[in-house]
Amino acid sequence: MFITADEGGAWPIVWVNESFVRTTGFTASQVMGREPGMLRSATTDEQVVEQLRASMRAGVGRTEVLRAEAADGSPFWARVSVSPMRDADTVTHWVVVLVDVTELMDRDVEHAALVASERRERTSLGLVAQVSDLLMDIDDPHTLREIARLLERGLVRWASFYLNDGGLRAVDGVDAGSAPTGRGTRHGNVPPDQVEIDRAPDADPVQQMLDGEREGPYELALRSDRPATSASGWLARRLGTSATGATTDRDRLPDDVASVVLLPVPGRRRVLGLLAVVPRTGAGVDVLDEATLTVLTLTVRRVGLAVDNVRLYAREHRLAETLQRAMLPEQAEVDGLDVWTYYAPNSEHAQVGGDWYDVLQVAPDVVGVVIGDVVGHDVEAAAAMGQLRSVVRSSVYEEAEPGAVLSRVDKLVAGMRVPRPAGLVLTTMRRHGDGWRVAYSRAGHLPALHVRGGEVTRLSGAGGPLIGFGRAPRESAWTDVLPGDFLVFYTDGLIERRDRSLRQGVESLTEVAGSITALDAAGIGEEVLSRLADSPEDDVAVVVVRVPGPDDETRRSGSPRVRRWVLPGEPASIGRARHAVLRTARAWDLAGVGHAELVVSELVANAVLHGWGQVQLRLYDTGDGLRIEVEDSNPTPPVTTDGHPGRIGGFGMQIVERLADWGWRPARGGKLVWAKVRDSRR
C-alpha cells in the first residue's frame, strides 16, 4: 500500500496490492483516496496509532503491532511497517506494509495465559505444600495461626480459624486435650423456643454449616440482625466489631470489610469448625477465582484431617494410659515395709503395654510382690496382662510359696490359652524376727536385686521358663532381708537400650543400686530413675521394697534431695501428688511445710484440667523449704483470677500465691509452674 504525504498532514491511499484486498476485504476502489484510519476498530490501541503518526510526521520509519478491523467487521492483528519515499530531502510517499499476525498473536496470548496458569498452579502447590509442612507440627500451639498468616501472604486479605468445641471460638492451634463436641451441637446456649426457629431455612447458615446441612463457601454479612444466640449472629458480631478494636487482634478486620467468606473445616464424621477469609479484591464468593478456592478447600480438608488425627491420637493415648493404670494398683501401703512403685508407658506407643506390678497384703505378716512383662504393646498384650494378673493375685492368697503358685499358674494359663508369652518374678515376704524371710520364684524374668550396706545380690535362683511353658514343678529360693536392706524389682524397659546388651544393663543397674545413699524407698526409686530411665525405649515398671530401721524418722538422706513422678493427666493424680508430698516431707524431715499439700493439689489440678498427656511432678529440698515443680503440655501461662462467674472454682492460683512464692517458665512442648513453700522452722 502506498500513501501520499500532502501538505495538510493527511496521508491518502494511492495504491494497494491484491494481498491487501485479500487480507482486509476492502477493494481498491473502496480505499483509494481514503486514509488508513479506516482499518481502525474499537479495540485499536490509540496510543500505538499516535506513535506511528509521530514517526511519520518526523519522516522516520516505524513498525508496530495493532488491532485492526476488516471490511466485514472482523478484527485481526496486523504488524504495520511504514517507510518513507523521498525526492531529495522531501518525503513524497509512504510505503505501508500490513502483515496479518493474528495466528501468531493468538498463540502468544494462549502461551501467556498458559504461563500465568502454570504460575498460579505453582503458587497454589507451594502454598498447599507449606500448609502440609506446618501441619507436620500440629502440636505447636500456634500452627493454625501460622497457616492463616500464610494464606494472607499468598492468597487472601485476611484469614482466621474457628473450631466448634462447645461453641465456636477463634483458635491459634489445636487443644488435643479438649474433647470435641458431637455433631449437631448447638453453638452457645440456645433457648428451647429458639431452636426450631434457628432450624428454619437460612435462619442460621453458620450453624447449618457446622451441622453439615449446608456446604461452603458461604458469604456472611457482618452487619446482620440474626438472633444473638445463633452461631451466625455470634460470629457476625464478633467480626463486625473488630474494626473498632472490640475483639482480639486475631479477629481484627480492615475497616472497609462488610462480609467474610466461610469454608467448613471437615473432619471424618462431622464439621470441626470454620475458616473465615476476606478476598483480596471485592467481596463475596464470586470474586474468588478457581485456583484460590481450590487452595482454600485443600487447606481446610488437610487441617480438618490433622485436627481429627491429633485428637484421635490424644484420645486413644489417654484411653490406653487410663486402661493401663486402671490395671495397676495405687501406691502400696503395707504394714512394716516402705514401698515405692512406678510405672510409665513408652511415649512412642499410643497403645497399652504389658508391664505390670502388684503389692499384696496377704496377711498381717505376709506381703506378696509380683512384677511381670507380657510381650507386646497392644490391647491383646494388655488383655493377657489383666488375665495373668488376676490369676496370680488369686493364687497368692491361697498359696504363699512362690514356686507352687507359679506351677498352678502354668496350668491355669495353659487352659485359658493366654495369647502372649509373659515373664514374671513372684515374691512372698514373711516377718522373721526384726527382718523378713523372702521366698521367690522366677518365670523367664530378670532377677530382683537385694541391697545391704552397698552390697548388691542378684536374686537369680529359682529360675524357669516363661509362664505357660513350665512342664516341671517350679522351684522357690529364699533369702533374708534385715532393717535397712531394700529390694529392687524391675522390667527390662528400665535397663534395655539399643547400644548395650541386657547383661550390660543389669550390670549398670547393679552398680547404681550399690551406690544409692537414699534412706527411703521413694528416694531409692527416684535415684534409680534419674540415673537409668532418662530415655527409656520400652515401658518401665519398678517396685522398691525397703525394710525400715528404728531410726528412719530422724536420719537424713545423703542423696540429692530431688524426687520425680510422672503422673497421668487424670483426677486421680491429684491425690497421688498429695501423698507424694506428704511422704517426701516426712522422709526429708520437712515438718514445717504444711501448706505444701494444698499447693501441690492446686498445681496438679490445673495441669490435669488445662493440660493433656502426662504431668511431671518434681520436689526439691532447697535447704529452707520445699520447691514444687509441675510440668504439663499446655504452653498457656497460669493466671490468678477472681473465680469463674456462675460456677465454683477458678481461685487455684490465688491460693498458691498466698501460700508460696511461685512462677512459671516455658518448657519443651508446654510449661513448668513452680512454687516454693518455706520451712517455718528454718
Automatic annotation (TrEMBL):
Gene3D superfamilies documented for this protein: 3.30.450.40, Histidine kinase-like ATPase, C-terminal domain, PAS domain, PPM-type phosphatase domain
Keyword Hydrolase listed: yes
Coiled coil regions, renumbered to chain: none
Signal peptide: none
Keywords: Hydrolase
One Pfam family per UniProt: PAS_9
Ranges where the PAC domain occurs: 62-113
PAS domain span: 1-59
GO molecular function: phosphatase activity
Protein name per its UniProtKB record: Serine/threonine phosphatase
